[in-house]
Amino acid sequence: MSNIPGWLRLLWLMKQYSEDELNELERIDDEFRAFVREEEIKHRKWLRENLPRTTEGWLEIFPEAKKLISRRKRKNQRRFEEMLEVARDVDLEDVVSEYVNLRQSGAYRRVGSCPFHDDKTPSFFVYTTDNHYYCFGCHEHGDVITFVRKIKNLKFKIAVRVLYRYSRQD
Question: Which among 24, 110, 118, 167 could bridge 126 via Cys, Cβ 3.0 to 4.6 Å?
Answer without folding.
Answer: 110
